[in-house]
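User: Predict DUF559 domain-containing protein's structure from this.
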Amino acid sequence: MTVPRVPYGVARARTFHTHGVTRGQLRRLVEQGAVRHLRHGWYQTDDADPDVVRAIRLGARLSCLTVLGRSGLWLPPWAGLHIRFPERSRRGNRRPVPAGMHTCTPYGPQSLKDFGAVDPISLALSAAARCTTAEYFVAILDSALRSGQWSLDDLTHVLQHCPGHLRQLLTRTGRADSGTESLVRFRLESCNIAVTPQVEIPSVGRVDLLVGRRLVIEVDSVAHHTGLEAYTRDRERDRTLAALGYERIRLTWQQVIHDWDRVFADIVAIIPRGDHLRTPRLH
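Assistant:
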């Protein structure tokens, strides 16, 4: 018989049954090698997702940052593979977690409902709140809002069981075109530097961040600022901003993630001089 298609190529026996596969037929599929037995009650097909298979073999589910990344949300560079052990699973039935995999626990009660091999995004977001730093979590929340799949009310509901200081991070979200832009905004605001995101400037268009009246900070993400065309466009914008009297700082992904201390020193060197407060000449 034909092997039914199941999400991620991994499912419980009862999922196969709902596709019309009887216990006897499932046993024969295993004997024929068309379906493999993973662990008690779980099976995989030939097209099974390797990461999901690894999680289920441990008695866990794919969760947290791994699920968010697969949903198209921005991720920290050190994400790795994140899994969650069901609340009702017995520790004695869990296998040791290999290096490079992270065990995550969402805030609040986990539903007794079996979500399958991969957690829903709402549960993954709750787990990520515990698994990341404040600045990276705000970048993830910004990414969720930017995707259009989530509203601020949706995220408020998802984080209802989180501690107050994490729920408060929702007030730190804002408009951003990339995760690195979110990081820069959050870091500057955390140092009491007022930043306005996504400002429209005549003859230039929208810039990432504006400090004061004339310090423009552009944050180049890996995804959107590579290639000759993007490089040329960015330099044309820089030239126009200079002609209008704006101070400009352009940051790369590498500088934001790995060299922030030096970047921040350059930014704060400008602020005491008051250069960022002078009014540019717009035309």
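The longest strand covers residues 195-201.
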